[in-house]
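Example A, followed by Example B.
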Amino acid sequence: MFSEIVTKIDDFVWGIPTMVLILATGLILTIRARGIQFSKLGRAFKGIFKKNEGEGELSGFAALCTALSATIGTGNIVGVGTAIAAGGPGALFWMWFAAILGTATKYAECMLAIKYREVKEDGHVLGGPFYTIEKGMGPKWKWLAILFAVFGALAGLMGIGTMTQVNGITSAVNMAFSNSGTAFVIGENTYSWATVIGGVVVTLCVALVVIGGLKRISAVAEKVVPAMAIVYVFLGISVIIMNATKVPAAFVLIFKSAFGWKAMAGGAAGWVMKQVLDSMRKGIARGIFSNEAGLGSAPIAAAPVQTNEPVEQGLVNMTGTVIDTLIVCTMTGLAIVLAMTNPEFFAQYEAAGWKGVELTAAALSWDLGGDGVSIQFLLMLCLTFFAFTTILGWDYYSEKCLEYVTKGNMKVVMVYRILYIVAVAIGPYFTVTTVFDIADIFNGLMAIPNCIALLVLSGVVAKETKAYFDKYPTLQ
């Protein structure tokens, strides 16, 4: 009953109006910024390691890693699997489409966050969509800024920051240690000792790091994020190389599924439209879950960067969408679709009802061969690191949202930290579909006020971008 209600709310929040708003925001910003995600992508990657100078608390690289620590998580492994299971292989196409437009969105929201950030008396910096809305659109829109901040805190507490991440970790641990035995049963759900122990260990680790605050989170992210991304990308490249002859067929399947061409041949027009909409909705929603472009979270990490040039860090942060979706998510998606091109695997998939990490693990095992045990353990390790850093990054985002709403009341923040740790502790005991639907709901609610602000301030984006490139026509 609860899961059905959540699904209906998710369908409503991620209806056509929300999808149009997000895609239109990306398209308009692409036009206003003159296709910056295409023309300046090389310059953006070069700027990642540039030494920063100016007001702020973090280097540009540290800020990018903090943002990536929150984006590269279960969305890249579990989220892609759930998207393809629910929306078909075509969901991957819509993830790509949303990511291409979302790269311009990520640039704009991070640039504006630095432009409108606030440096407090004690020297620490606070910025994000809440200040972009309040300062950029004017004080009369502060209610919209508060709305965003409230949704941001709830998203961290009840969705993308806690339950989905720890649920993904414990699902992978349970898969790797499938013979760990039953710990207890609640209703129709059975929970293994692997799930219980994995959940307890993650909760304790989160509690230890969260208490340390921003600098400890960024220190962990700088070391873990690059390493874990390299390992997973290597795994994905191995899949593509070993199945190179099947890649064209996989792309054909993705495009056919995205537009319902296969079903159109059968004349099932009504079903075709539903399939395409499901594919779009799941692809766009999971894409935003993964790369967070338009969500308004990455600007919170970008705001404290030591720079006096907002455009500069906007360029750096927009590479996060490319790394997260167009590289890491694509590795997962192609592995799954490559396996699905085989009729035998597809029959097993339909019979078993695989989704999430189970589907990803089964596909990788099929693509690479072997008994699948080693793949399950490697996937468990990648997912654990991915999700753990995401939990840390979202605690930071949520706390900054609370700091804005409560005007820096640290007592409220400390209570929130305790609730955050509790949410991590109970996350393993929800179904994967339910936790992702809850996360999607709050993601959509965050994205709406953020995208409204980006559309209103698109002229500021265009003006700031032109002024910067007129001033610095070549990379400094």
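Example B, a separate protein, is given below in the same form.
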Amino acid sequence: MLFPEMDERVDVPEITTACWDILGKTPDDVMCAASRMVVKRKGAETPVVLPCTLLPYDAAFEMGATLSDMLVADGGNFNNGAVKLNHPHCAKFCVLGGGTCSAAE
């Protein structure tokens, strides 16, 4: 698979409900809808839960230090544990780019 360029400085199109229909996808199809990643960064006192392997250094996407915290992450990039698809990588890589981190797809 050829991965799209992941440059956060480049504008990406907004994903609308029409886009999902055109692509034949739903927000539930992307990895962050159901998967999480726990990362303990070098020098950090505690691990953090992240929604995506593409965002390991973006503190705005940290969902808390525990899986329990993750379930109730709210505000900013989260809505009661659900991830808002508002990072440039969401649109460019996962939705429009067709990228997947799942071995099953």
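On Example B: The radius of gyration is 14 Å.
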